[in-house]
Specification:
420 residues, alpha/beta, 8-stranded mixed beta sheet, 10 strands, 49% helix, Hyaluronan synthase, transferase
Length: 420
């Protein structure tokens, strides 16, 4: 208690809470990397391989993905598709994607791009990636999900940060493709903001992006090749790790140099449009993130951002649990529950609106300004969803983080491209 009888406890809690949001102002300092004329020959000379793992993908989505790779303004040298044993969910027969394979090989040949298409037994995404990358002699590897579509300049923009020899990996900007499908996909688009255009952007300003999105990421090839045989065999408590491949590759890169985000390298991806698929995906990500936090605490230098990010994350969780308990069990605070709840609601809405300003950082030709404004206005609903639904799910994921052996992926095609 202060001499005037007031209790500074909650004031300190609020101050700490705002300090934990250090990334919110910093993310606005991010600028896309550019290259000078003297650096241009080095960037143009990079040999680039795009690797696309495929498993039970919608054929139309896969076709759109392949066409976007072949249509890049900066042509790549190789496209390597690995089908990880896809099967038809209705019949159990192999799903071979014969038309899509023929399209890739035909069009790549016409453009002078080397293309390969392999089919392997189902072992998981990491094995599908390293099936070809362990022996590929490219300078840069691009990892791309099969349900994603590249902007035509994505590769050209994603290579620019490599003009700095210290940069070992580059995260692309991931934007939901099917944002208008239903309420869940609209909500997901807003929920992406704190990570894709907030925290990741702030980390990039410091040269320390901690988790690239596997949807689109660029790596110095030697970083990936160096860890072949180890990367695909990662385990936790004796269980093979079948998730968070992107954060593992990013950690390898961060241990060797700078890891950045290039907001002008844009990739559009299909997000879950059904609740069951959505919750499986979230649970998988949360469990993988929990394991990766433990890896950062164990392997990253104490002075690094990677070491302190889990500390910050867990401090946030503890505060979120302690504040309500403190209010309920402190008599003079309990009497002010209504006022405290009101102030918390106002501050929560304000913070959500500040984060959601990042909606306007990217303009889409398939999205009107009116739609963006509507999503901005409704953004506190995303904050409420995060608090009521995702926070308890995260706690459950932390408590069951050892269940990482099951990829939890689709047994059949789950998200399809809407007909034109």
């Amino acid at each position: 208690m202060w001499r005037d009888g007031t209790d500074p406890g909650l004031g300190v809690v609020w101050l700490v809470s705002f300090l934990l949001l250090w990334w919110l102002p910093m993310c606005w300092l991010e600028r896309p990397a550019t290259v000078t004329e003297s650096e241009r020959p080095g960037i143009d000379g990079l040999r680039v391989t795009v690797q696309i793992p495929v498993y039970n993908e919608d054929p139309q989505a896969l076709r759109a993905c392949l066409e976007s790779v072949l249509g890049q303004s900066r042509r790549v040298q190789r496209v390597r598709v690995v089908d990880d044993g896809s099967v038809d969910g209705a019949t159990g027969a192999p799903l071979l994607y014969e038309a899509e394979r023929a399209l890739l090989l035909r069009e790549a040949g016409r453009l002078g791009i080397k293309a390969t298409w392999d089919r392997t037994p189902n072992r998981g995404k990491r094995w599908a990636q390293m099936h070809v990358l362990h022996e590929d002699d490219a300078d840069v590897f691009v990892t791309l999900d099969s349900d994603s579509v590249l902007d035509e300049h994505a590769v050209a923009e994603g290579l620019k940060p490599f003009a700095d020899p210290r940069v070992k990996s580059v995260a692309g900007l991931v934007v939901p493709l099917n944002v208008k499908t239903n309420l869940l996909t609209r909500l997901t688009a807003v929920l992406y903001l704190p990570f894709t255009r907030g925290l990741r952007s702030a980390q990039s300003v410091l040269g320390s992006v901690l988790i690239n999105s596997g949807t689109l990421a660029f790596y110095r090839a030697e970083v990936v090749r160096k860890h072949a045989g180890v990367y695909e065999r990662e385990s936790f408590r004796g269980v093979p790790m079948q998730m968070n491949d992107d954060s593992m590759l990013t950690m390898y890169a961060r241990l060797e140099g700078r890891t950045v985000h290039q907001p002008s390298a844009v990739c559009f991806t299909l997000v879950p449009d059904k609740a069951r698929h959505y919750f499986r995906q979230q649970l998988r990500w949360m469990r993988g993130t929990t394991v990766r936090h433990l890896w950062w605490l164990r392997h990253m230098p104490v002075r690094s951002l990677a070491f302190w990010m889990p500390v910050v994350e867990y401090a946030h969780l503890v505060l979120a649990l302690l504040v309500p308990v403190t209010v309920l069990f402190t008599p003079h605070l309990r009497e002010q529950t209504g006022s405290l709840a009101w102030y918390t609601l106002i501050l929560g809405c304000a913070m959500n609106y500040l984060v959601s300003l990042r909606l306007f950082a990217v303009r889409r030709t398939d999205e009107t300004l009116g739609h963006q404004v509507l999503m901005f206005v409704l953004s506190p609903a995303a904050g409420l969803w995060r608090l009521i639904v995702l926070r308890p799910l995260y706690l459950y994921a932390m408590a069951t983080c050892w269940r990482i052996g099951d990829w939890g992926t689709r047994t059949a095609v789950e998200v399809r491209v809407a007909p034109a």
